[in-house]
Design brief:
Helix 5 crosses helix 6 and helix 6 packs parallel to helix 7. This protein folds into 2 domains: about 60 residues, no CATH class; about 200 residues, Rossmann fold, CATH 3.40.50.150. The strands form 2 sheets. Strands 5-4-3-6-7-9-8 form a 7-stranded mixed β-sheet, with helices on both faces. A hairpin with a 2-residue loop joins strand 1 and strand 2. It is α/β, with parallel strands linked by helices. Keywords: Methyltransferase, S-adenosyl-L-methionine, Transferase. This is Release factor glutamine methyltransferase. InterPro entries: HemK-like (IPR004556), N5-glutamine_MTase (IPR050320), PrmC_N (IPR040758), RF_methyltr_PrmC (IPR019874), SAM-dependent_MTases_sf (IPR029063). GO terms for molecular function: protein methyltransferase activity.
Length: about 290
């Protein structure tokens, strides 16, 4: 565990997860059975595997990359190099999306952009399916490597039903039909924040983290695209960083979104922006649905 101090914000938990992976034993059993010193209860092969995992973690490789999985909303997502690891704070984005879809009187046409591992769209689709709520989902990402992970997760976690369209594209590029809901967890770290987290050994792709000097570049590109494709009374839901809510609200209002809400997480920090489309957008080619 000492090897991970200064690299990890949770060295004890990282060590436990890596030990669970190295031994193939549930963490509950490990905690109940390991004595002091722990080495007496572990096979030499387990110790060797654990030390190799710890060495990789101390070099900055995320735990989720090492074990190849990350739990999110009760689902186990496959992750690895080239994709952002799902985080607990993103669960609020899923909750808000499910709430919107569940309360709609129509079948919701739903797109998730910059999808990464696919954790948002897959969790939303799975939870709506469990509730018996129909939707028409799709997802996209500019990085082919991320799309590979997302497609694998969709196949493994959702099977063939419902079918989810996916394609490579920047933001909402390739989305040529109106949708009722767009979700996005875009990059939102400032240049300085990105430098700091990467210096601490974060091994995730820079392009999934960095968003310019003020952390708002992604919103300046995404919001106008969303304004031109979201159907009347549809919604744009975006994750954001602490303290960014008001600036993003202004961007949304400038591009014609009506009611714009800043939804805090359980710690009280800005976390999700909900922007509602008021009138038919300029480039909208479909008809408003009642």
């Amino acid at each position: 565990m000492k090897q991970l101090q200064g690299i990890s914000e949770s060295p004890w938990l990282d060590s436990l997860l890596l030990l669970e992976h190295a031994t193939g034993r549930p963490r509950e059993d490990l905690l109940a059975e390991l004595g002091d010193p722990a080495e007496k209860a572990l096979k030499p092969s387990w110790i060797d595997s654990f030390m190799k995992c710890t060495k990789r973690r101390s070099s900055g490789i995320p735990v989720a990359y090492i074990i190849g999985r990350k739990d999110f909303r009760g689902l186990s997502f496959a992750v690895g190099p080239g994709v952002l690891v799902p985080r607990p704070e993103t669960e609020l984005l899923v909750e808000e999306a499910v709430r919107m879809i569940k309360n709609s009187q129509n079948v919701v046409r739903y797109h998730d952009c910059c999808t990464g591992s696919g954790c948002v769209v897959i969790a939303v689709t799975a939870e709506c399916s469990a509730l018996g709520v129909r939707l028409i989902p799709s997802f996209s990402d500019i990085e082919e490597e991320a799309l590979t992970w997302a497609r694998r997760n969709a196949r493994d976690l959702l099977g063939d039903e419902p079918a989810i369209r996916s394609w490579r594209g920047s933001w909402l590029e390739g989305l040529d039909e109106p949708v009722d809901l767009v979700t996005a967890n875009p990059p939102y770290l400032t240049r300085e924040e990105t430098r700091k987290v990467l210096s601490r050994g974060w091994g995730e792709p820079r392009q999934a983290l960095a968003a310019g000097d003020d952390g708002l570049e992604a919103y300046r590109e995404l919001v106008p695209q969303a304004a031109s494709i979201i159907a009347p009374r549809g919604e744009l839901l975006m994750e954001c960083g602490s303290g960014q809510g008001e600036a993003i609200r202004e961007i949304c209002q400038r591009h014609g979104f009506d009611k714009v809400e800043i939804i805090p997480d359980y710690a009280g920090h800005d976390r999700v922006i909900r922007a509602r489309q008021k009138i038919a957008p300029t480039n909208h080619r479909g008809r408003e649905r009642n």
